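Input chain follows. Return structure tokens only.
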Amino acid sequence: MKRLDEAAAVLTEEHSAAEKRNYTGSFCGFVLLNHAQYDLLALKQRLKQRWGIEPVSAQTDEIIVEGGETGDWFDQLLAEESVDVLTEPEIQDGNLVFDIPGAMVVIGYTPTPVPDGEAERFAASNYLWKDAVEVTKQHVAHLMVAVLPHVMTPTEAGKTYVKIISSCLEAANAIGVYTSGTVLEPAAYQEITAEMEQGELPVQNWIYFGLYQNEAGNHGYTIGMDAFGKDELEIVNSKQSLEDIREFLYNAAYYVLEGDRTLRHGDTIGFHAEQKLQMKRGDGVAVEGHSIQIAY
């Protein structure tokens, strides 16, 4: 996930000291496009009409309309993304940078694929979308979407990110979302977004649930919990089926994120009266840094 990591690093560079230590609450991903254009004015209208998200900040005017000072982080972002800044509001291909209560939103258009075949490589990890790689290969341009909170909670920032991505996907040339270590199918993403509108957490739009097998057994892990300031979750050397491992990791992730809970070394977790599974915190097996490893 080199491109995602680089984008997150650039975008958080100008944030507070606490945010420099980690990316908690910051969300970044790419909407893949099979035609090299994007109507950002129409996107602005969709954000306002469906979600009440309106880019009206002074920073938008300064950066996009008047071409004022953008700061080192934005200059670096533009250099990395090789995009042109909007100089007039009616120009469609460019960038949107605006504030909403509690956060900054960055939407940048690039008329080239995600570099180095990265999106195609990670599309192969989506075992729920058999055509992920072939569809991803069709992308010729992309949008970078980032939500950078000032005072917004990680959960609210994550919901805002899902709303913006969902609105981006309404364009006819949007064919996938590269985020959290995989490429998601637009229809599946929109289905989870609709569940969010009914009060559910869009966990499957936030978190990737990785699965693999070897001679030691079946294994599973998450990617994306770190955006919420939580350790990634892992199940290793299990005799349970991959389907059951995925379901358990989903339930555990939902439990953590729903109540902003922290799983601790030595505690137990379970989802029925007889289930008390030991947890330990240690070096990640399939993920970077530390993880909570559940004996399932």
